[in-house]
Design brief:
The protein has 122 residues and is of the alpha/beta class. It is built from 2 helices and 7 strands. It folds into 2 domains: 56 residues, Signal recognition particle alu RNA binding heterodimer, srp9/1 (2-Layer Sandwich); 57 residues, 2,3-Dihydroxybiphenyl 1,2-Dioxygenase, domain 1 (Roll), CATH 3.10.180.
Length: 122
């Protein structure tokens, strides 16, 4: 029996604002409607979908236990585009043949952009 990761659930203090963040900056598609306590987002480019759930008051948000990593071919180009729309990423870091940069969503969850998926495998 196998398991496939296809959905990430994010707890949010303001689900609408968090859904709008992923729609605006990462092109996820959503109606923004809360159905059964969840706002559902899908990527038009394949990959995992996101469910946004209202966080209980007892949930501590912004812990670094999970980071959402978005694959982009051009990290600095994506950073510039995002900055024009209001999302500022930190410094671009160089790793083994790829680059990445970090930011936070409205609930202080870490998100990153990375060109790792597109690095030259030679």
């Amino acid at each position: 029996m196998s398991a496939v990761l296809n959905t990430i659930l994010i707890y949010a203090k303001n689900p609408s604002a968090t859904a709008e963040f992923y729609r605006k900056f990462f092109d996820f598609e959503t109606t923004g409607e809360m159905v059964e306590g969840l706002i559902e987002l899908h990527s038009p480019h394949a990959g995992a979908s996101i469910l946004i759930h209202q966080a209980a008051k007892s949930v501590k948000l912004g812990q670094a236990g999970v980071k959402l990593m978005f694959s982009v071919r051009d990290v600095d180009g994506f950073k510039e585009q995002s900055a024009r729309r209001g999302l500022i990423f930190g410094s671009t870091h160089q790793a083994n043949g790829y680059a990445f940069a970090n930011a936070k969503d409205p609930d202080c969850n870490p998100v990153a952009i990375s060109s790792r998926a597109y690095r030259d495998a030679t």
